[in-house]
Amino acid sequence: MNEQDKQDKHKARQQKLKEKVDARIAAAQDDKGLLLVITGNGKGKSTSGFGMITRSVGHGLTAAVCQFIKGTWDCGERNLLEKLGVPFYVMKTGFTWETQNKEADMAAAEKVWQEAKKLLADPSIQTILLDELTYMLSYRYLDIDEVLDAIANRPEGQHVIVTGRAAHRRLTEMADTVSEVQSQKHAFEAGIKVQKGIDW
Ligand code: ATP
Ligand code: MG
What contacts 38, CB < 8 A, 6 or more positions away? Predict the structure, then answer.
């Protein structure tokens, strides 16, 4: 096959693919407030959630963030997004990786959850990030029925993004979009400490 034939064949194949993709895009007509779950052991879950909050704000949508892990360092996204009017509800005490006090952790989780519940009932909020919520369900710090009910009964059109490892099956079954981030390698394993702008 000469070069021209190869190019023509490639072009025809791409054209066919484009037609297929265009047809599927045209067929997807529904608008819906989405539940997205970003889970798995690889790096990129919270940053993905914050990416969607940033996109929302960039389009003039109202957004809010609830973080279910106590930050041990400050959060670059928070520094930026709070200035743009995005409210953050963060555990000031309680759950960290070195958690020792279950009672205090549960109380701290409950406090942030009460704020999350208000947001999930507020039609003026268009996109909500529930960062690291999965752990609150797997540790049973929050009642899963209550959490799933609040998400299921949220205002129509409201998007919710949940991040964290080991997402509960009932949550992923309910979600519209589920992504699992897999780790191939992480700099930490090579002895590199957390880097500003990349890890926090
Ligand atoms: P990010 O906030 O960077 O998107 P994440 O939300 O996917 O990360 P978490 O499980 O919340 O990951 O952990 C947050 C911190 O742990 C970050 O500093 C991140 O770089 C680090 N981390 C994430 N995945 C891994 C991994 N597989 N091995 C080691 N460290 C990790
Ligand atoms: Mg995270």
Answer: 44, 45, 48, 49, 161, 162, 163, 179, 181
Q: How many domains does the chain have?
A: 2
Q: Which two tokens stand for residue 194?
A: 């957390």
Residues 142-193 have pLDDT tens digits of: 999 999 999 999 999 999 999 999 999 999 999 999 999 999 999 988 898 9
Q: Look at the block and give the residue holding tokens 């041990």.
A: 72
72 and 1 inside one domain: no
Position in ligand 1 atom list of the atom nearest CA 188: 29
Range(s) of the domain holding residue 2: 1-30
**Protein residue whose Cα sits closest to atom 15 of ligand 1:** 199
Count the neighbouring beta carbons within 10 Å of the beta carbon of residue 174.
15
Q: For ligand 1, which residues put their CB under 6 angstroms from it?
A: 41-47, 163, 165, 181, 183, 186, 188, 194, 199
Dihedral of the CA atoms 77, 71, 107, 40 (nearest 10)? 80
Same-domain pairing of 82 and 120: yes
Mind listing the pLDDT tens digit for each residue in 47-60?
999 999 999 999 99
